[in-house]
Fold each of these.
Amino acid sequence: MIEKLDETAHQRMRRMLKDLRNEVEFKYNMTDNEFNSFVKIAAEEMKAKEELDWNFFNSCNFVVATLTTIGKPQITHGSYFSLFIQNRTLSAASFFLLMKSLWELLAIGVRSLVVKTETILLKRTEPRHVKLKTICVSGCIIVFQHLMLASLSTSFTEN
């Protein structure tokens, strides 16, 4: 069921601008040129606000700042030296240590999966090129994980 509106969106915008012009002229003694300039600047600002500011560089900057907590000094207080030591050195080191441990666990799991696949499913007595196969499978898992995280982060950050 569609209801007919008394006025179109364009007519409503015109009416609201006219009401605003009368109110501004009465309260602030603003001329028509000053009011038009104000409306133009406000409209440009609203249009710029609607546009997304996400590009590849900004996305990479956001990911690095979030994962290493480098962006924390922008929201915390303290001396520059203490923030530098606390956030950049310790957080980055702990992040890279965590990532190294996670990738080693992934490699161990993938290696055992490769060996079991070759011995049980393919019935090979001695698996060959296990290290190369482990690197390839781990790389595929990492690429898939990054694609999934990027798609999730994109869907949550666009709104």
Amino acid sequence: MQTPVFEIKVNGKPVASILNERLLSLSITDKEGVGSDTVEVDLNDGNPYAAIPKKGDQLEVSLGYKETGLLPFGTYTIDEPEVRCLPYGMTISGAGTNTRDQFKQSRSRHWDDKTVAEILQQIASENSLTPIISAEVSAHKYPWIGQQDESDMHFVERLARKHGALFSVKDGKLIFAKRGSGQSASGKALTKIILTPAQIVEGTCRVTFSHRKKVRKVKAKARNRAEARTDGVDADSDAEGTADFTLKENFATEAEAKSAAKAKAESLKSETIKTSVTVFGDPTIRAGAPFTYSGVRPEVDGIEFIIESATHRLYKAGYLTEIEAKLKPVETKKAKAKPKKDNAASTVKTNNNSSKTPKIPQPVSQPPAGNILPGQVGIGRA
């Protein structure tokens, strides 16, 4: 039997021993990408009354088990404390301190003959962030690219969509990695999660196959100024799709169009299978981590997912983790252009594997994990 524990620091000072007697629930939501992570602490209040948090107060939160130790979940800025009267209570909400104000301010500028990596390194330096950039999605060189009346955050998000990257800012780091690569804020690979029936709360596992969202190909256009024509490229997405998706933007170069089409094809493919599940509390489960089911159901076991959000909830009764995930983007081969014909669009197939539904391996039985029911645990003191 394991005992859930937590640690909370307010402006660097530990307060878990005080909150332990008042805590009703603690919820932490970890999201993939640049979406802000959140924390919510619900407390009993009164006799004596707790001090109402001030603007800018910082919460540092760690979760885990007494027997295995705590894992940090980051620092949050308190943004919306709420007090309840007669009876008395308090809810403290906070958002991840992931982005500084200047990162969200609009600006206009441009770069000439710069790679994605060089652009990101400059933006990271200007915002006092440490860049962690994957070469796989940052090697493209732009002859010219503009940031026009948009924030650094929105501009980098736009780059991420074009190049099939996942952009996030966590713990003072700007991360720009291949979507589905499963990197943590340190740039290291996140632990792959394999869920068995023993870990799953009964009645919570759902897998949705969205056949209507399947797209056969993604098409893009690039302006060939030297020959005064428009060249077309396409990327396979799902062989079971019946319609094509066309990107509205006209790209400056064929290489840029190929990259954008490939990225969109992978993104659309990943939306075709989604899952949600609640498991017994596991602090190692984080957004961006890869996971699969094992021994749950044929045609579900072995599908590779990427976690979009992980919500950790700690109650007096125990500790649970809620997962939302989608199909892991399929690895693709580098696009190769076919020989062009005069005044004809060039067609490029970027992936020989991603157009097919992933092959489902046979279930592999595993011994049940030694998990415990929510009602069998209590909250321990950190």
Amino acid sequence: MWGVNAGSVIYWYTNDDADTWINIPGALSDIGAGADGTVWGVNGGNQIFRYTGDQDGSNPGPSSRAAPATSG
């Protein structure tokens, strides 16, 4: 599970009792994860970003929300 707080700080839930939530570098205003594990986010400047586990990068186009589809 992924989340962002009111300060745009990104967190990833690890399901590990010792360190349940891990802070991820960067800042996003919205985040969502797809069924395939791809994570999409939008920053305060409405830029879209994608993280697939081994790489991240911006994607063209403005948006204010991130809502991955279940497929394709």
